[in-house]
Automatic annotation (TrEMBL), chains A, B:
<feature type="domain" description="3-hydroxyacyl-CoA dehydrogenase C-terminal">
    <location>
        <begin position="189"/>
        <end position="251"/>
    </location>
</feature>
<feature type="domain" description="3-hydroxyacyl-CoA dehydrogenase NAD binding">
    <location>
        <begin position="9"/>
        <end position="185"/>
    </location>
</feature>
<dbReference type="Pfam" id="PF00725">
    <property type="entry name" value="3HCDH"/>
</dbReference>
<dbReference type="InterPro" id="IPR006176">
    <property type="entry name" value="3-OHacyl-CoA_DH_NAD-bd"/>
</dbReference>
<comment type="similarity">
    <text>Belongs to the 3-hydroxyacyl-CoA dehydrogenase family.</text>
</comment>
<comment type="subunit">
    <text>Homodimer.</text>
</comment>
<dbReference type="GO" id="GO:0003857">
    <property type="term" value="F:(3S)-3-hydroxyacyl-CoA dehydrogenase (NAD+) activity"/>
</dbReference>
<dbReference type="InterPro" id="IPR006180">
    <property type="entry name" value="3-OHacyl-CoA_DH_CS"/>
</dbReference>
<dbReference type="InterPro" id="IPR006108">
    <property type="entry name" value="3HC_DH_C"/>
</dbReference>
<dbReference type="InterPro" id="IPR036291">
    <property type="entry name" value="NAD(P)-bd_dom_sf"/>
</dbReference>
<keyword id="KW-0963">Cytoplasm</keyword>
<dbReference type="Pfam" id="PF02737">
    <property type="entry name" value="3HCDH_N"/>
</dbReference>
<keyword id="KW-0520">NAD</keyword>
<dbReference type="InterPro" id="IPR013328">
    <property type="entry name" value="6PGD_dom2"/>
</dbReference>
<keyword id="KW-0597">Phosphoprotein</keyword>
<dbReference type="InterPro" id="IPR008927">
    <property type="entry name" value="6-PGluconate_DH-like_C_sf"/>
</dbReference>
<dbReference type="InterPro" id="IPR022694">
    <property type="entry name" value="3-OHacyl-CoA_DH"/>
</dbReference>
């Protein structure tokens, strides 16, 4: 929505799976990217990895190469890489000491107004930014893997992160085509990995109990829920699964999930009555029951198109 | 794979959301479908609902109408609907007494060799088929909602279900384009709803704890995991998320999920060491580490195509 879209300089610190993917996100949107990795053997491979990421997401090999040539510089010192940066993406090893030491350096060598964003999967931001002079500009920007392919990104502030920094981070991510979500509290595992973790734990339990094979557990998701959830989220999905919407769905099937919650020694039901009421209200405000059937058709037509695309062999691109 | 693909007669008993969706699956594959519902007011709406399901999945309105006219008969008695059936799909209310009474009748009025399939979401098959004369031909065929759109289907036998009935059910479902999975044990909630339930419980907990809004919880899945899982299952996905594959992924991130398992008062870790070893072996046998990077490119290119499709407005069909 910004009128003068500014070209930014983004520094990528740590150029592994995630760093080279973030680099692709910014380069393809027309920004300048400066890359640093402390491992010299990694530096050599960056160009290839980044070019592959650009090609896989942009499609056009020529345009990818041109974007790479025009927009990316690989640096051999941290100072050089971050000197001009408006935003620094830290994507180094998932170790608190490594991040703490790095953020201390970043806080000193970057422009004081630069946003310092960490890709950490699960380390609370407070554990490695507390003592910094400009800690108000630090924020977690945790991507789905890999971010050049998957837009979902969680943005998690520390108690001392500036509201303006959070706002700017969210809007920059939107501008480059990501789908940022604000995680309002520093919750263990944030939100995304907790969702993934809940599913993975259940998959492992089912395999261990001899209920399904690992390949079949994957297949139940790939050929089922994933197609649906790519079109409507898991909550909206259950709202469409009974003619009376979420309210009827919970009345009919809630006890299946209540039993699961109980197995986990949870004292609460699957969903608290107050949250259930609130969600039913939200869903009915958005989609009156008389429009449910039309929404289902919309969902089904979109999923049918996804299936046709996925059924194509890679040779018939 | 069958050489003489036979035209079957399939009876749909209970013509609500699921029954009318099963009907579409069989009709569009060229089989004859006989429908019955005990509620007369439902009978009137069946044609429209079924036609919509055919159109949404087949795409072509003319062909859909022709398939409906040629293949579907709506009956006003159960006996007439099931008389010629090779397979009966029961999709009536999720109540054990209703299913028990119905299966007793079905066992009497159907051809003795007909497969009796229940769509039940969570009632163990043993609770409503035990006393039947021909209980060996009963099996649960539990679809993802709706089956005319989502192929994943779990097939759950009772202890007394014939192995041949299970085999035939699996292969018929394959033939009509579903993606059937054998659930080897009658586990509470089977497999599919347990996977969905695990995710939904976690979503509700995050919303209740004020970590994310409901809309954002849906978005994290829709714009992230779902796109990935439509291309590679959740287990295969984590195998691709570290350069050293699943083994390295678990070493790096396993503790995030171990902590989640512990919160649930589970005594076990997220994944047992023996299952982890077995899965690492399976994944490396299928995909040697040197091919991991190429597989990631394949994944990313496919997801990029899905995203382009989903980004199209409904008007640019
Ligand atoms: N792989 C995933 O699924 C995933 C998903 C989301 C977030 N993350 C997070 O992203 C971060 C990076 O993960 P990854 O998978 O890209 O790891 P990776 O091992 O592929 O890459 C890390 C890179 O950082 C470099 N590095 C280490 N210490 C450094 C330092 N002090 N200065 C500069 N470079 C340094 C390493 O040489 C390596 O190239 C981690 O915090 C991880 O938790 C990973
Ligand atoms: N909706 C879902 O998400 C879903 C998913 C998978 C499985 N299922 C299962 O499928 C079955 C049907 O669910 P639904 O969502 O289609 O419900 P629904 O209420 O939409 O349809 C049920 C239909 O069965 C009819 N019926 C009831 N008793 C009958 C009887 N004795 N004989 C004939 N018809 C009878 C009703 O009139 C109604 O039309 C249930 O067992 C349910 O657990 C539902």
């Amino acid at each position: 929505m910004q009128v003068n879209k500014q070209t930014l300089t983004v520094a990528i610190v740590g150029a592994g799976v995630i760093g080279c993917s973030w680099a692709a996100v910014w380069v393809r949107a027309g920004h300048r990217v400066a890359i640093f990795d402390s491992d010299i053997s990694v530096l050599e491979g960056i160009r290839d990895r980044l070019l592959r990421n650009l090609r896989d997401s942009v499609g056009d090999p020529q345009a990818s190469l041109a974007a790479l040539e025009a927009g990316v510089v690989i640096h051999s010192t941290l100072e050089d890489a971050v000197a001009a940066a408006d935003l620094v993406h830290e994507s180094v090893a998932e170790k608190v000491e490594v991040k703490r030491e790095l953020f201390e350096r970043l806080d000193r060598v970057s422009k004081p107004e630069a946003i310092l964003a960490s890709s950490t999967s699960a380390i609370p931001l407070s554990q490695f930014t507390e003592g910094l002079l400009n800690r108000h500009r630090c924020v977690i920007v945790h991507p789905a893997t890999p971010p050049h392919t998957l837009p979902a990104t969680e943005v998690v502030p520390a108690p001392w992160t500036d509201a303006a920094v959070v706002e700017r981070t969210l809007s920059l991510l939107e501008e480059v085509g990501q789908s940022p979500v604000l995680v309002k509290k520093d919750h263990p595992g944030f939100a995304m990995n907790r969702l993934q973790g809940a599913l993975l734990i259940e998959m492992f339990r089912l395999i261990e109990a001899g209920v399904v094979t690992a390949a079949d557990a994957d297949k139940l998701v790939t050929d089922g829920f994933a197609l649906r959830w790519a079109v409507v989220g898991p909550l909206q999905a259950i709202d469409l699964n009974a003619d009376g919407g979420l309210e009827e769905y919970l009345a009919r099937y809630g006890d299946i999930y209540d039993r699961m919650a109980m197995e986990r020694h949870e004292t609460e039901r699957f969903v608290s009555p107050s949250l259930a009421r609130e969600l039913v209200k939200q869903f009915r405000d958005q989609l009156p029951l008389e429009q449910l059937e039309a929404k289902r058709s919309w969902r089904d037509q979109r999923i049918a198109k996804l299936k046709r695309l996925l059924a194509k062999k890679d040779s018939d691109r």
